[in-house]
């Protein structure tokens, strides 16, 4: 999978996440359509279902994550300046298994108003 990271913008928190076109190569086949669903596990092993869609017409496909994205962004309390990382996770079963993806949120760290790096977002662990 072509993993990617992206700094979160206002549009990403309010509407959809635009993703690099290279990301399409690693997703399940679109089978002639303009959208495909895939799942990714977060740092708490929670599985999220996202839909990646592209424009139906035009020269540029402009892929975006729509379905499932806003719920994820809301639950993770994403803010402008955070970073999202999608990556290929190792699938422990067989070669015939569907691709396995991971997703991680990193929170911007600032010191005296300057960004000095990112740290993994530690989500609340749900009680049993």
Automatic annotation (TrEMBL):
<keyword id="KW-0805">Transcription regulation</keyword>
<keyword id="KW-0539">Nucleus</keyword>
<dbReference type="InterPro" id="IPR015300">
    <property type="entry name" value="DNA-bd_pseudobarrel_sf"/>
</dbReference>
<feature type="domain" description="TF-B3">
    <location>
        <begin position="2"/>
        <end position="107"/>
    </location>
</feature>
<protein>
    <recommendedName>
        <fullName>TF-B3 domain-containing protein</fullName>
    </recommendedName>
</protein>
<keyword id="KW-0804">Transcription</keyword>
<dbReference type="GO" id="GO:0005634">
    <property type="term" value="C:nucleus"/>
</dbReference>
<keyword id="KW-0238">DNA-binding</keyword>
<dbReference type="InterPro" id="IPR003340">
    <property type="entry name" value="B3_DNA-bd"/>
</dbReference>
<dbReference type="GO" id="GO:0003677">
    <property type="term" value="F:DNA binding"/>
</dbReference>
<dbReference type="Pfam" id="PF02362">
    <property type="entry name" value="B3"/>
</dbReference>
């Amino acid at each position: 999978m072509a993993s990617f990271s992206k700094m979160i913008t206002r549009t990403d928190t309010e509407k959809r996440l635009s993703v690099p076109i290279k990301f399409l190569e690693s997703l399940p086949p679109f089978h002639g359509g303009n959208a495909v669903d895939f799942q990714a596990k977060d740092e708490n092993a929670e599985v999220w279902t996202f839909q990646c869609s592209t424009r139906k017409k035009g020269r540029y496909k402009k892929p975006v994550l729509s379905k499932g994205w806003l719920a994820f962004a809301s639950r993770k309390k994403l803010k402008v300046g955070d970073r999202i990382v999608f990556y290929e996770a190792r699938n422990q079963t067989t070669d015939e298994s569907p691709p396995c993806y991971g997703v991680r949120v990193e929170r911007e760290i600032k010191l005296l108003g300057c960004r000095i790096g990112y740290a993994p977002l530690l989500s609340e662990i749900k009680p049993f």
